[in-house]
Design brief:
There is one protein chain. The protein is of the alpha/beta class and about 230 residues long. About 40% of the residues lie in helices and about 20% in strands. The protein is built from nine helices and seven strands. Strand 4, helix 2 and strand 5 form a beta-alpha-beta unit. It starts with a strand and ends in a 5-residue tail after the last helix.
Length: about 230
C-alpha cells in the first residue's frame, strides 16, 4: 500500500498568532483513500474510521461538487490535490491551509447536516493568501459569503446569515461580515467579492481597495449598510 506522508500545517488568524505561535504542525504517515476525477484528486484520511462509509461519501461528493465550481469562479490556479484529514484530537470544527483540511468528527456526529463546512474550508484553499496582513475578518467573511452563495445544504443545517444587530461590526467576521459582503454585491458591485479575493491573493489588499472597487470607503459602506441593511 502507498503511504502518504502529510505535514499538517494550519495557519491561525492574526489575532491569535501570539497564543498559537502562528501555526500548528503535525506529521501524519497514513494510507489515504485516493479519489481522482476530471483532473482533481482528494486524499481522504480517517485512520480511526470516525466517519461511516455513507457519511464519508457525503464529504467526498461535496469536494467534487464544490471545488470545481470554486476553482472556476475564484482561482483556477489553486491546488488540484487536496487532503481531508479526520482528526479526533482536534477540538475545533475545521481548519484549512496548504491544500489540507482537518475536520473534527465529534462536531459532525452532533451536526451531521453541517456539510457546507466543506464549502467554507475549500474556499480557504482557493484563497491561498500569503500575506499575513490580510485581516482575518476579510478572509473568514469571504469564506462564509461563499458558503452562503454556493452552499448546498445550509437550510438543512439551519445555517443562515444573521440580520444586522446594533452590536455588529464589519470586523465581527464570519457570517456577520459575509452578510455585509452580500449587501455590497447587491447595492454596489456584483463582483465585489471576486475583486476583493483577488486583491488579497495578489498582495494588493489595502484600505484603499474598498473605494477602488466600489467608489466608497469601507467606513462609508458600513454606515450606508447600517442605515438600510436589506439584502432582498
Amino acid at each position: 500500500m502507498k503511504h502518504l506522508v502529510v505535514i499538517l500545517m494550519f495557519c491561525f488568524p492574526v489575532a491569535v498568532q501570539a497564543q498559537a505561535q502562528a501555526q500548528e504542525e503535525r506529521i501524519i504517515d497514513a494510507v489515504p483513500d485516493t479519489i481522482s476525477r476530471e483532473g482533481l484528486t482528494l486524499y481522504f484520511i480517517d485512520e480511526e474510521k470516525s466517519f461511516s462509509e455513507s457519511y464519508k461519501k457525503r464529504f467526498i461528493d461535496m469536494y467534487f461538487l464544490q471545488y470545481p465550481k470554486l476553482l472556476k469562479k475564484y482561482n483556477d490556479s489553486a491546488s488540484k490535490k487536496v487532503v481531508f484529514f479526520i482528526d479526533k484530537t482536534y477540538t475545533g470544527v475545521a481548519e484549512a491551509g496548504n491544500s489540507r483540511v482537518r475536520f473534527n468528527p465529534a462536531w459532525f456526529a452532533s451536526h451531521p447536516e453541517d456539510v457546507d463546512v466543506v464549502t467554507h474550508e475549500l474556499m480557504h484553499i482557493i484563497q491561498n493568501y500569503r500575506n499575513n496582513k490580510i485581516p482575518s475578518w476579510v478572509t473568514e467573511g469571504i469564506a462564509d459569503y461563499v458558503r452562503a452563495m454556493e452552499g448546498v445544504n445550509n437550510q438543512n443545517s439551519q445555517w443562515a446569515l444573521p440580520d444586522l444587530k446594533p452590536e455588529h461590526h464589519y470586523r465581527s467576521s464570519y457570517r456577520i461580515t459575509a452578510r455585509f459582503f452580500v449587501w455590497i454585491t447587491k447595492k454596489h458591485k456584483s463582483d465585489f467579492v471576486n475583486q476583493l479575493d483577488e486583491a488579497a491573493r495578489s498582495n494588493r489588499y489595502s484600505d484603499a481597495v474598498w473605494a477602488a472597487i466600489t467608489g466608497k470607503t469601507l467606513e462609508e459602506l458600513w454606515e450606508e449598510y447600517k442605515a438600510d441593511p436589506a439584502i432582498r
